[in-house]
Design a protein that fits this description.
The chain folds into 2 domains: 95 residues, RNA polymerase sigma factor, region 2, helix turn helix motif (Rna Polymerase Sigma Factor, Chain: A, Orthogonal Bundle), CATH 1.10.1740.10; 88 residues, Arc Repressor Mutant, subunit A. Helix content is 61%, strand content 3%. It has 8 helices and 2 strands; from the N terminus they run ααβααβαααα. The longest helix has 24 residues.
């Protein structure tokens, strides 16, 4: 007998995972639909040279499916946190793959809305955080000449990330630009949260110094 998935529409994520484990596959579609906006938001916040936004969305949905498949109700704190981590990891892997195929540095992507001082806090010098890309390019309608300048700024930033940052600083910065919180970055890289945060602040400080 086919069960009515709408009867449990107010179930917490973890309960829906349990239903999926019991064979009620309709809950898989519900969770996919519930978190598809998260995937689109992450994909939309990235600028990747040579990559298509829809490709990133597809990779993100794959990551979301893996989260549903692999979530452990007894081990993992919450499905929302686990899903965010899996989606970011899948996108990050896709970016690395694209880099290898096209021989481009991984840093040829930046977030259009990540803030210099972190998404929810002020910058290290005490000023309010501002979009990272706005430290390079002025807002507003751009002329063709301004667009060229913007592209040059992206390339300059890419070069600085590649040459000025350590491997750890680059990796932490890349994950931060996907919108992943520092705590999750630390977990993904097997580092203490303080170590990941210090690497992120060093990376941003180096870039701000060279771009000023």
């Amino acid at each position: 007998m086919k069960k009515d998935v709408h009867a449990g529409k107010d179930l917490p994520d973890e309960k829906m995972i349990e239903k999926i484990r019991e064979g009620e596959d309709a809950f898989t579609e519900r969770l996919m639909n519930k978190y598809k906006d998260l995937v689109r938001k992450k994909a939309g916040s990235l600028y990747i040279l040579g990559a298509d936004k829809e490709d990133l969305i597809q990779e993100g949905m794959i990551g979301l499916f893996k989260a549903i498949r692999d979530f452990d109700c007894e081990r993992d704190a919450s499905f929302a946190t686990f899903a965010d981590l899996c989606v970011s990891r899948q996108m990050y892997s896709a970016i690395e793959s694209a880099k290898r195929k096209k021989n481009l540095p991984l840093n040829h992507y930046v977030s259009l809305d990540a803030e210099i001082g972190g998404t929810e806090q002020s910058s290290p010098d005490g000023s309010d955080g501002e979009p990272f890309i706005n430290s390079l390019v002025a807002e507003g309608q751009r002329t063709p000449e301004e667009h060229v300048i913007e592209q040059e700024a992206f390339l300059r930033l890419s070069s600085l990330i590649e040459t000025e940052l350590t491997a750890l600083e680059r990796e932490v910065l890349h994950l931060n630009l996907t919108g992943m919180p520092t705590a999750q970055i630390a977990k993904m890289l097997g580092r203490e949260e303080k170590s990941a945060d210090n690497a992120l602040q060093r990376a941003k400080g180096k870039l701000k110094k060279r771009l000023s």
